[in-house]
Amino acid sequence: MSGPDQGSTLSRVGLYVVLVGLVLFYLLPLEAGIVTSFKTTGAYGSTQPFLPAFDGLTLEKWTGAFDELSGGLFNSVIMAVPATAMSALIGSMAAYGLTNVDWRGQVGIYTLFIAGIFVPYQAVLVPLKRFWSQWVPLDVWLEPLWLLPGLTSDHGGLFALMITHVAYGIPICTLLFRSYYKAVSDEMVEAARLDGASIRRIYRRIILPLSVPMFAVALIYQFTQIWNDLLFALILIGGSGDAAVVTQELVGVGQAQEATDFPLQMAAAFVTALPTLLVYIFFGEQFAKGVTA
Amino acid sequence: MDAIRSWLRRRRSNDGSERELRTDGGVTGAPEREEGLIARYRRSDAVRSAPFWLPAFLLVGLFVYGAIFWNILISLTDYSGLGDPQYGSFDLENYGRLFSETGSYSFTNAFVNTVILLIAFTLICLAFGLVVAILVDRDIRYENTFRTIYLLPMSLSFVVTAKMWLWMFSSDGGLVNVLLGVVGIGPIDFIRNPDPNVQLAAVTFALIWQFSGYAMVVYLAGLRAIPDEHFEAARVDGASLVRMYWRVIIPQLRTATVSASVVLMVFALKAFDFLRALYGSSTPSVGTDILATKMVRVAFDNNQVAYGSAIAVVLFVMAFSIVTPYLYSEYRRGAL
């Protein structure tokens, strides 16, 4: 026990009342949203927001939301999964290159990386847009290369988005891995070195196997960040089109209707949130490590 | 063990003559003939480890720092999104324009909103997170469950939370208004309220819902790092619970406070996604812009790209006037 003494029974009861109240504060919006997503438009108007509508329980809004978002879900997956893996791997390599070798200047480069975590994306949007559309117009260059069925040249924007997410994920991944590698026993690495192992061999044989828990943290953190982003997607992919990711499509859901269709909007919000919610439910510990790093 | 011993000896001798000291007879250095400046350079750690840090360095250098520099250049042109930016003549016209705007769509107004959001959001998140962390730290059962629930909203996208709170705040069956109705307060349209302060307060509230759990876990880690004896000593002194936290415990949470507030402020500066999902690309009817949304609308929806870049530079300067002192203190502390 690290806190102070347990206090009287009465204050313990009060404590739990407050804690449960906080649970309601954090969960009630989610609960009400989920409940609402299973209502028909008619039942929505006639029931309390946080109570289910027993007569009008329906999956109609979920299937509707899934139909509207399926293209975005597909694009988000094919963009976010490779981007997550690449940023974690490159970040791990950078952290190794900036830790277990003795050279001045590594702290300087590392500081530059860390500062990169805090850059507001607005400060780079105009150059990124120009870079990917005028200098390296991937949608034009890659057009003949697209072999996957259903992908159009629009998806060059998706590729640009992927690379951009990799670049912006590297700083935080480097931070995660570097603090971890600093704790890795220097003696072990030095010993391997003096036995003639090359830098590359040490990474592959010693560092990489040791990094598995940190890869879990970095992958979970990165996946959440990339999946949840709207700003980069909005700028690099544009308003609509075949390459829109799921957050972009979610913004537009339910806006065409004359009256706001809240059940549909809630269903769409949860379809979008489902991947990161599942990641959080199954890997909450690693998620917490990532965000507090 | 031999290897470690020889490594220690090499460190002590410190003249690079490691090959003589090898006990296993192996050769690690470059062949004899490759002496001289270039050869030594090639063997140096910086170069040999380059394959590891160089890809990251190039990507970050190009997409982060190169882009920031380019953005500054563009902010000095009068690029409007048609054709190419003219780098022939630079002037500070866009920066002058920032301060000449007046009214509720002006830069000044967006700047003030940004600062209000930043301060209100950060302070309330910290205070709320601290209280929750202290409660969770009181040796409760199911601590993991409580902690998991409090942090849960942070895993959601800004767009998802914006959709949820758009509904929560709506006067058409939204939960907040239904609850307010129970205590007899009539439905209030928070999101499209004619009073910009009401809109900002609603946005701040939703962001606190999403991020206070983050302040909680940072503080909880800070509390766990305080030795039990400090609690003990305060109790022996007969200090009341409030006094003990206020005088003994909270002052020791300085590091946690600093790092949490830096991160929260950066979140607030990035709250673009949330507001964009709430309000779309149109100009808000009342002055509820923050710099992050104004920049995107100016540069990409209204095609005043150079002007938008100037706003982005201001945003960047704000972020780095928060982050630089923090990074410097981390550096002094040896944490980098």
Automatic annotation (TrEMBL), chain A:
<keyword id="KW-1133">Transmembrane helix</keyword>
<keyword id="KW-0472">Membrane</keyword>
<feature type="domain" description="ABC transmembrane type-1">
    <location>
        <begin position="73"/>
        <end position="283"/>
    </location>
</feature>
<feature type="transmembrane region" description="Helical">
    <location>
        <begin position="202"/>
        <end position="224"/>
    </location>
</feature>
<dbReference type="GO" id="GO:0005886">
    <property type="term" value="C:plasma membrane"/>
</dbReference>
<feature type="transmembrane region" description="Helical">
    <location>
        <begin position="107"/>
        <end position="128"/>
    </location>
</feature>
<dbReference type="InterPro" id="IPR035906">
    <property type="entry name" value="MetI-like_sf"/>
</dbReference>
<keyword id="KW-0812">Transmembrane</keyword>
<feature type="transmembrane region" description="Helical">
    <location>
        <begin position="73"/>
        <end position="95"/>
    </location>
</feature>
<feature type="transmembrane region" description="Helical">
    <location>
        <begin position="263"/>
        <end position="283"/>
    </location>
</feature>
<comment type="similarity">
    <text>Belongs to the binding-protein-dependent transport system permease family.</text>
</comment>
<feature type="transmembrane region" description="Helical">
    <location>
        <begin position="12"/>
        <end position="29"/>
    </location>
</feature>
<feature type="transmembrane region" description="Helical">
    <location>
        <begin position="158"/>
        <end position="181"/>
    </location>
</feature>
<keyword id="KW-0813">Transport</keyword>
<dbReference type="InterPro" id="IPR000515">
    <property type="entry name" value="MetI-like"/>
</dbReference>
<protein>
    <submittedName>
        <fullName>Carbohydrate ABC transporter permease</fullName>
    </submittedName>
</protein>
<dbReference type="Pfam" id="PF00528">
    <property type="entry name" value="BPD_transp_1"/>
</dbReference>
TrEMBL record, chain B:
<keyword id="KW-0812">Transmembrane</keyword>
<feature type="transmembrane region" description="Helical">
    <location>
        <begin position="148"/>
        <end position="168"/>
    </location>
</feature>
<dbReference type="Pfam" id="PF00528">
    <property type="entry name" value="BPD_transp_1"/>
</dbReference>
<comment type="similarity">
    <text>Belongs to the binding-protein-dependent transport system permease family.</text>
</comment>
<keyword id="KW-0813">Transport</keyword>
<dbReference type="GO" id="GO:0005886">
    <property type="term" value="C:plasma membrane"/>
</dbReference>
<feature type="transmembrane region" description="Helical">
    <location>
        <begin position="305"/>
        <end position="328"/>
    </location>
</feature>
<feature type="transmembrane region" description="Helical">
    <location>
        <begin position="52"/>
        <end position="73"/>
    </location>
</feature>
<protein>
    <submittedName>
        <fullName>Carbohydrate ABC transporter permease</fullName>
    </submittedName>
</protein>
<dbReference type="InterPro" id="IPR035906">
    <property type="entry name" value="MetI-like_sf"/>
</dbReference>
<dbReference type="InterPro" id="IPR051393">
    <property type="entry name" value="ABC_transporter_permease"/>
</dbReference>
<feature type="domain" description="ABC transmembrane type-1">
    <location>
        <begin position="111"/>
        <end position="328"/>
    </location>
</feature>
<keyword id="KW-1003">Cell membrane</keyword>
<feature type="transmembrane region" description="Helical">
    <location>
        <begin position="200"/>
        <end position="221"/>
    </location>
</feature>
<dbReference type="InterPro" id="IPR000515">
    <property type="entry name" value="MetI-like"/>
</dbReference>
<keyword id="KW-1133">Transmembrane helix</keyword>
<feature type="transmembrane region" description="Helical">
    <location>
        <begin position="110"/>
        <end position="136"/>
    </location>
</feature>
<feature type="transmembrane region" description="Helical">
    <location>
        <begin position="253"/>
        <end position="272"/>
    </location>
</feature>
<keyword id="KW-0472">Membrane</keyword>
